[in-house]
């Protein structure tokens, strides 16, 4: 069995303003299945971002959390923060 790589979103955090924080784990496994290394990558999704390239778990969480009201409220708050 060759060395393999496994990628999974192992943490999904919903923030009060509707942003969703993701932690993606990249795990390298030896030929016997033991873990050689694990690396993490974090990213934040804003309400209304495209999530088509994400796995079903992430898409489903976004679909539940990002109601039309959450997206509108986030856009309003973001616009208020960026005004001079």
Please render the helix and strand layout as text:
Layout: E1 4-14, E2 20-29, E3 35-45, H1 56-65, H2 68-82
Antiparallel strand pairs: 1-2, 2-3
How would you sum up this structure, described in words?
There is one protein chain. This protein is elongated. It is an alpha+beta fold. 30% of the residues lie in helices and 38% in strands. Strand 2 (20-29) and strand 3 (35-45) form a beta hairpin. It has one domain. The protein has helices at 56-65, 68-82; strands spanning 4-14, 20-29, 35-45. A three-stranded antiparallel β-sheet has the order 1-2-3. The chain is built from two helices and three strands, in the order E-E-E-H-H.
Brief description of this entry?
This protein has 84 residues and is α+β, with helices and mostly antiparallel strands.
């Amino acid at each position: 069995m060759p060395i393999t790589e496994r990628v999974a979103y192992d943490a999904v955090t919903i923030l009060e303003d509707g942003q969703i924080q993701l932690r993606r784990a990249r795990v390298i496994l030896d030929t016997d299945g033991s873990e050689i290394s694990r690396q993490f990558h974090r990213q934040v999704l804003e309400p209304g971002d495209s999530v088509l390239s994400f796995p079903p778990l992430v898409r489903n969480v976004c679909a539940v959390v990002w109601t039309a009201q959450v997206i509108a409220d986030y856009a309003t708050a973001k616009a208020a923060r960026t005004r001079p």
